[in-house]
Amino acid sequence: MDGGRAELKPKEVFKVRRSWFVVHSITLRLYDAHNHLQEERLRPHRAAVMATATEEGVAKMVVNGSCEEDWPEVAAVAREYPQVIPSFGYHPWYVRERTPDWQKNLLRHLDQVPSAIGEIGLDRWIRDPDPQQEEVFAWQLRLATERDRPVSIHCLRAWGRLFDLLQAGPRPRRGFLLHSYGGPQEMVGPLVKLGAYFSLPGYFAHERKRRQRETFRHVPPDRLLLETDAPDQPLPEERNLHPLIDPASGKSINHPANLSAVYHFAAELLGQPVDALASAVEENFQRLFGNLGARTVPVRSA
Ligand SMILES: [Zn+2]
Q1: Domains along the chain with CATH numbers
Q2: What backbone torsions phi and psi does residue 197 show, to the nearest 5 degrees?
């Protein structure tokens, strides 16, 4: 303290911000377009995490499986929590682990419960990708098209190829989600024409993510979604409203209730009042993820 000027210590600033966020998010219904609630790192915290997420106004979250191993856990969290929209798919990082029955397994999960397809995608950033990565992606995209299911797509360093595949089609009629879109700004327009939605993660609030953040100013308001990607993609420290530790590694992880902080980050970035943004995001979310179709029972041959 100097010259008699009252200054807030960092901790007090944090407290003030936190209560402001909580008060303002109470009336809003928030939609997380992409997270991984089923993950091992969140499991010990799950009940508390879901209670806090509900307090923060999280109405729905799309919980993405990434391989056969975690699909049953995605189905389990969907049975336990009505906020969960389950999503089943093979993530490009885990394609190598697939069993010979992976397609049958995927169909079985999709038939059990109204669900989305994801996380699927293309990734040329990982070392030594599976040579069948593209084929596995294309098969799942075709499946999403045939069943008109919402699909969540991951893409790293493969934007040109992804665009070609999407353009060649077939593509789901309802559109598709490019989660944590980090592709070039110039591709936003052409991707919109193919039916793309783009979800902004809180991670792009980090100073070094300026290019990715700026790209979102060019996303049409009717194609914008928001996501936490919890337990990954944490917000910068000063925006992290719900610090959480993975007990196994002692490392900090992202809390699904940080979704309200993502909404406030997006509202600041786009220069919009948070309630106007929230109602636009709600409409977009319902358009893409609503109406997942009735539970379908697989036809058995006699
Ligand atoms: Zn993800």
Answers
A1: 10-289 (3.20.20.140)
A2: -110, 155
